[in-house]
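Workshop exercise sheet. Pairs work together: one partner reads the sequence aloud, the other fills in the structure field after running the prediction. Swap roles for the next sheet.
Pair: D.N. / O.F.
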Amino acid sequence: MGQVQRSRTDHDPATFMIRMRRAQVEDVSSAILAELSDLQRLVTSEPDVAIGRAQDLQQRAEALGLREAVAGALLCQAEGHQRSGELAAAVTLINQACDLWAPLSADNQVRAYLLKSFVYNDLGDEPTALQRTMDANAAFTPEVSVPLRVRVLTKTADLLHDLGDQEDSVRYYGRAEELANGDPKMHLLVANNRAYSALEDGRIEDALAGARQLWSLSERYGHPLGAAGLDTIARIHLLAGDPVLAAVIAQQAVDASGQVDFQTADAGPYYLLTLAVVQRALGDLPAAWTTLARARQACSEEGYDRCKNQILREQADVRAELGDHRAAYEMLRDFVVADADLLSRRREAQARIRQAIFETLTAREEAARYREEARRDPLTGLRNRLYVHERLGELLEEPGLRGELSVALVDLDHFKSVNDEFSHEAGDRVLQTIGLLLEETVPGGDSGSFVARLGGEELLLVLVTADRAQAVRIVEQARLAVQNHDWSGITPGRGITFSAGVTTRVPGDLYNTLLSRADQQLYTAKSQGRNRISSDG
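Structure field:
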């Protein structure tokens, strides 16, 4: 029995080290992606903690050139800032993530749309927020994680409800709940938002059914209700006319304010506000006043404006019921002024962020144009050496490449004499014409193939084909196209031809090894009389 033939690269120490290094990078990459997935869950409940960890992960991903992981880390930071009420910082980070990689992976693209929706919703622009969630829905692919799809569907349902489309809102909540079934955190999120929408509409029976579902899901999953769910249930029972039970549950929400699945900037003060409203309904005005003072104290100096105004309005109501009508009047007046100021500042913020988004889009378009120009040869319009170095390197690393990767190094025969005999202007026209002829011959589109000018009269064909033989046929077709072209308008009495060396990737190939073999084949073609191709196949 004959021995299995092994390639000479199997014992090559350099090739072995390259493979080992690739394996190590793949292991680190997998660990970073797993860590990013954990952070994307953490950021919903502990945004400040997640921001710091995401910054560290971003640096490690940048060092390894993992652009999608970098984009994911930036989006994680963006969500952390949005949940902390820092919208300008969130917008900046979203735009940075979108600038890194075009297009983003499906998961990151959907996440970016969702975060933009959050920002617009925070600014009070529900129609634009809804448009962004619809963009996110349209970007769904099987690769997009189920929890992310649930969040998008739920946010879509929330916005449809806010905009008065109850029928479609119910439909999207249903789709979200169907997907979330089996995931305690996500299922409770959908159920809580659906119940809250019924609460806001004053649909008491639907709201009570929602409260019962929250308790049932909590028991089913063995997952205790967090502060957000408890707060919703407390408000539902207050709406249903049971302030005693509402007070008990509202206190539980305040006590559990550190136990949340989905944190928002004003969550803590808002739970205290609910408790104060319930206490006032029970007639315990001193307790309500004390709780409101705690709620106001829990609001930081910056942000929380919407919650501060609600607290101020509730304080005015408490003072009125205590009989202090002057204080109530002054607080109500302050509320009206503050509410108008809030509306004005929200409009200003919305305008600023819209402008920032517009400026970023403009800058992105300019950057894309400059990037494209920097990777084109100005004379022929073909790709240049910089593009070849980037793209060929990516193709060599691409595990799922559809077909064989071959390169053909092309050199025009006796080109110096064209410049000497007909002028450099004629030489330039020859190069431009050959560029057009090669691009007409080489398949473009999604094939991955392209034509480049490396400099002078040296060109490169990068071919992704079914097999080596097809690559050789394409190069031969290009050679014949140049040979048979009518050159009389540029070089009267003189034809133009080229020689080419073709090689196909083998395991372990690097950028330099591939081009080196093509150069060797080009030398063979020239030494055999030019106007021909030589292949290592």
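Discussion prompt: The CA atoms of residues 231 and 253 lie 5 Å apart. What would you look at next?
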